[in-house]
Specification:
Order of helices and strands: EHEHEHEHEHEHEHEH
Number of domains: 1
Radius of gyration: 15 Å
CATH topology: TIM Barrel
Structural class: alpha/beta
CATH architecture: Alpha-Beta Barrel
Distance between the termini: 14 Å
CATH superfamily: Aldolase class I
Strand content: 15-25%
Number of strands: 8
Helix content: 40-55%
Length: about 180
């Protein structure tokens, strides 16, 4: 039986006022496997907050800051920085690579040792990857949360809601719960 698809959230690029409370409500409302935070020094408190709730906390694109702040790893915009990030972070930290819609880039990242590859919301590509490869795949939904169940059914290991979950702070917990239910 294949593993169940899990939620992978990406915080907004700039933290809105009260973001810690919003994040807490979201984490209370739905099981979150991973949280990606912008590479900002002020992410330190949110990293610890997520980790205390057994949520893997990654920084976006800055392995040096990820190491300094004690993040669980880093999410790279492409594979060109993979080797340097892995050397810096070691084998115990997560290094994921966004590959857009490129099978070639994803295969290179997987061959290099990436812990996951992330694709834009291209259903056929995610399905192909899930069927052919063993490296976990993240489907980056952007704001198209209604398609989450399709990507889960196609074999995505994770669906990423991007910042869409946090677009309406009051509705964020309900949106996360609805997304979790859709991929269950």
């Amino acid at each position: 039986m294949p593993a169940r698809c899990q939620l992978y959230l990406a915080a907004p690029a700039a933290f809105p006022p009260g973001f810690a409370a919003i994040l807490g409500a979201v984490l209370d409302a739905a099981p979150i496997a991973c949280l990606r935070l912008p590479a900002l020094p002020e992410a330190a408190e949110l990293l610890r907050f997520a980790q205390a709730r057994d949520v893997a906390a990654l920084l976006d694109g800055n392995p040096e800051l990820a190491q300094r702040l004690g993040a669980d790893g880093v999410h790279l915009a492409d594979g060109k920085d993979y080797a340097a990030a892995r050397r810096l972070l070691g084998e115990q930290k997560i290094v994921g690579v966004h590959c857009g819609i490129s099978r070639h880039a994803a295969m290179l990242a997987a061959d290099a040792g990436a812990d996951y590859v992330a694709f834009d919301a291209e259903l056929d590509l995610v399905s192909w990857w899930a069927e052919m490869m063993v490296v976990p795949v993240v489907a980056e939904l952007g704001s198209d949360l209604a398609r989450a169940a399709d990507f889960a059914a196609a074999g995505a290991d994770f669906v990423s809601a991007g910042g869409a979950i946090f677009a309406d702070p009051i509705e964020a917990p309900a949106a996360a719960a609805k997304l979790a239910a859709a991929i269950a």
